Amino acid sequence: MKKLKRSARLVEMTQYLLARPHTLISLTAFAERYQSAKSSISEDLAIIKEVFEDEGIGELSTLAGAAGGVRFVPKVRKDLALEKMVSICRELEQPDRLLPGGYLYMTDLLGQPAMMQEVGRMFASAFADRNIDVIMTVETKGIPLANATAQYLNLPVVIVRRDHKVTEGSAVSINYVSGSTKRIQTMSLARRALKEESRVLIIDDFMKAGGTIQGMVDLLHEFRAVVAGVGVFVESGEVEHEERLLQDYVSLARLTEVELKTRHIAVQPGNFF
């Protein structure tokens, strides 16, 4: 790269860090990239660090020593996240989202990239310190959430299938009981999709009793994997705490009231806040 003026270098360096979250980058690599002294690079990083923290973009952590460098950890300030989540809750409360059976229509929101980016940042902030290897979700509505979270954690995504696909080779399949319908269902994961003993973050769009997520947890046992965390976009408040199959999770929104006759829906921020 050609030598840049300091103002241009700050812009390019910021973009370089934003595109490589949770990646350790040495001062030597920056010095060679911008043809600048390490002392100048350190000064630039100090400026970027201050802006990142002041604006709630994330943290720029420094690791000293010969093998050291800097690592950008995306995070979101709770006040900014809460403001955004309150807006999403108002969207979810629209009466026309109520479907027969009391289900909540969310597919349009899950298809909005800008909104998913915000939600992904929240999950990434919540699980930034969990030492995660891979993100898991079940097809299909959880995929946008998992991909958005993976972008900020810089991790691969593994998708659990409802039905095994022959194009994925041999797979591990299990039966599980849906917590809401009490029906026995099947999920499967290709053996090549996940290394044994991986630390896994589970992301899902909606949780009622937690049967689907518990199914994923049981599936991970077949791979001797560790559940490093569980993130849920919306949880149902209709299920009593002791009846929920899962107790340790982070939710961004909580569906607290559904009245079919009046089509009244109430949604509030989840336990992340």
UniProtKB/TrEMBL annotation:
Regions that span the bilayer: none
Gene3D superfamilies linked to this entry: 3.40.50.2020, Winged helix-like DNA-binding domain superfamily/Winged helix DNA-binding domain
User: Which GO biological process annotations does it have?
Assistant: negative regulation of DNA-templated transcription; negative regulation of purine nucleobase metabolic process
The alphabetical list of record keywords is:
DNA-binding, Transcription, Transcription regulation
Per the record, the domain of life is Bacteria
Query: Which CDD domains did the record assign?
Result: PRTases_typeI
Q: Which residues form the Bacterial purine repressor N-terminal domain?
A: 5-74
Q: Which InterPro entries did the record assign?
A: PRTase-like, PRTase_dom, Pur/Pyrimidine_PRTase, PuR_N, PurR_Bsub, WH-like_DNA-bd_sf, WH_DNA-bd_sf
Q: Which family does it belong to?
A: Belongs to the purine/pyrimidine phosphoribosyltransferase family. PurR subfamily.
Q: What is this protein called?
A: Pur operon repressor
Write the lineage as a comma-separated list.
Bacteria, Bacillati, Bacillota, Bacilli, Bacillales
Q: Which gene encodes it?
A: purR
